[in-house]
Amino acid sequence: MSLQFCTQVAAFTSKKHAGLWIGLAIATLALGLAHFQPVHDDDVGACMLEDIITASTSQTPQTSIGEDSGAAPTELELLEPLEARCASLNKEFLNLQKDVPTSLPFATKLLQDLRNFDVQYAITMSYRPPAYESHNASDHNATANQEWQLAQKALVDSKVTRTVTRICFLQLVTAARRLTASLPREGGNANGALGCAAGMLKGIEERAVRELELEGSAQALSCLGVHWSVLAVSDRSSAHLFGSGPMPSGKTASAWVQDSWGTVAPADMVHAEDLLSRSVQGQGSSLHKRQALSIVHAHRLKEHAKALESYEQHSAAARRYQSMAKLAEEGGSAPLSAYALSHLSHTLKMHGSQEEALAAAKGAFDLTMDPLAQFVLATVRLSSGLLTTDALMKGAEGQLRAVAGLLPTDELEMERAKVRNEMLMWQWISNGNVNKCLWTRDVAKFLICTMCKFMF
Fold first, then answer.
1. Whole-number Cα distances in Å, 303 to 167, 229, 372, 413
2. Pick from 372, 382, 277, 269: which is nearest to 317 by CA?
3. 89-121 pLDDT, tens per residue?
4. What pLDDT digit, counting tens, does each position of 68-82 carry?
5. Taken in order 289, 290, 294, 296, is the CA torsion positive or negative?
6. How many C-beta neighbours within 10 Å does residue 169 have?
7. Contacts of 456 (CB under 8 A, 6+ apart)
8. Contacts of 439 (CB under 8 A, 6+ apart)
9. Which terminal CB of the chain, N or C, has fewer other CB atoms within 10 Å?
10. Does the predicted model carry a pTM greater than 0.90?
């Protein structure tokens, strides 16, 4: 067990509970030694993570030990420092994600901190203080009544803190999985696992998912949904330290299933969407919380739609863009709703649904004058023969000029430039300026341009 972890344990609670924690540490150490097996893997080099002795949840003490060392700590006294440590680690992961490229030494330190925290988490969450002996209901002693009320409040506070800590723990694991997948394959990380055995952190992820599945709050469901979503849209093999990750019960990594819209998608993606949907629909959440959860759901549907488009599942992607727009609207984010509608309009345009594409593009344009929506409006109106006057043609050409450099891909930029040039050509013809035809690099279009001059 590392010195860092031992010092964390020592500072974790007050001196009056030192006997309890010494007992817990000894028990964990003994159980860990009994189950510790050195890893042998021909594909690994010098592991950059320190050896740490861990014990599974089933092995850690479930009840108080060292009871003769003084009054047992309350659950809240143990949980609050654990939750604070988790929140602190989460901030460190978020700060590290802003570094480009990611610093390998700092990433290694954070992953080691995660492993240390996992041990601390397993010990603390398995501890159960002695049950409070309730007083007789007929006893009107004021002190007894006050003690009973305090005990009930402590139970509620402990339950809330347990939930918050479980959510925080899975958020840590989600961030860590993303981090390991993004680390440069160089130096000590040539094998993608910091020189360690693949799947070394698998147990941590399994514990975090399993623990949060015990919770039913909207925030817990949302956090689980985000983690499954990250698994669904990422290359599972890219985070070697965590292995391929869990799968929904009874499903394989390659399984595709029917979703709630009647289209098909990967099983882990559909599972994530079910969790996220349940989080938004959960009863009891305030309006502000529901809005926040709707935005989280919308952002994950955005990633799902992009992934499905890469699989050429355009109908499934369109359904997600539609739902994303509605969720973003409910969450009060006009830009996110416009993004969804503009991408929906482009998807519909590319697959022949011109009228629906126009409707979606108009919706996005009305919200934020989204560049992609303007592109769709101009091109669909042109291809549908709706630009019947010079004013309409000039308006559409102006839209294409205004969004230059703002479209999401180089391919769309090339198409924008091409369509705009064609619009300009027809304006030249209509104005009788045949000399402009010389600027057309396409021979066929040059001939059309000049012939139209003589005809009209």
1. 22, 8, 18, 22
2. 269
3. 999 999 887 766 678 889 999 999 999 999 999
4. 455 667 888 999 999
5. positive
6. 27
7. 429
8. none
9. C
10. no
